Amino acid sequence: MEGTQTEGLDDLPPSAKLVFKVLEYNGPLTQKGIVQESMLSARTVRYALERLEGIGVVDEDVYFADARQNLYKLTEPAQEFTSEESDASCTAD
Asked: Which domain of life is it from (predicted)?
């Protein structure tokens, strides 16, 4: 299953990869927060989130501070993927 997520992430457009990295570094964020951190347009962020949800690396949850917004976070398998990636980069040196 990890190989499928890796292939799916590699096949995404750069905007989706950037949104993935923003969520990886900052943790759960609303769409508005992702727009501010990534400096992408709201439309681009929406599309990137759709693509990331499609491959199962991002979950959408209710943002309790403002129920009109959603909170986006990396799924558990996606977090394992990012930790394996950083481990591999450390051993490559």
From this structure: Archaea
Residue type, 74: L
The SS3 call for residue 30 is strand
Q: What is the DSSP secondary structure assignment for residue 75, as one 8-state letter?
A: -
Q: What is the mean pLDDT of residues 50-63?
A: 91
Task: Place 89 in a pLDDT band, splitting at 50, 70 and 90.
Answer: low
What is the C-alpha separation between 71 and 64, in angstroms, rounded? 9
